[in-house]
Amino acid sequence: MTEGNEKSPLEPCPKCGGEVVQAETLAGNTWLLLMKSRSAAALSLGLLRGTPVTARVCLACGYTELYATNPDVLK
Fold first, then answer.
1. Is 35 within a domain?
2. Residue 26 is assigned to a structural domain of this protein
3. What is the distance between the alpha carbons of residues 18 and 63, in angstroms, rounded to a whole number?
4. Number of domains the chain is built from
5. Which residues pair with 24 in a beta bridge?
6. Which of 1, 11, 18, 43 lies at 20 to 30 Å from 63 by C-alpha?
7. Does residue 2 sit in helix, strand or coil?
8. Alpha-carbon separation of residue 53 from 9, 19, 23, 30, 56 (angstroms)
9. What's the rounded Cα separation, in Å, for the pair 20 and 35?
10. Is residue 68 in a domain?
11. What is the sign of the dihedral through the CA atoms of 20, 67, 27 and 30?
């Protein structure tokens, strides 16, 4: 069990067993977001809902997995 602000270690890389770290994702000068709809109507009505994405990256082979920070907003 972890205490305070300590994070539990990430699972080893599923491809090579190497060390995995968590990384932030950016697209240009903004955070990478997952969105359910990209229609112009949804955009103009402010109905777009999205979630930031974080990445887990293997330091040995570069294998990368993306995770939605708040996947519930895509339901």
1. yes
2. yes
3. 10
4. 1
5. 54
6. 1
7. coil
8. 19, 20, 10, 11, 10
9. 26
10. yes
11. negative
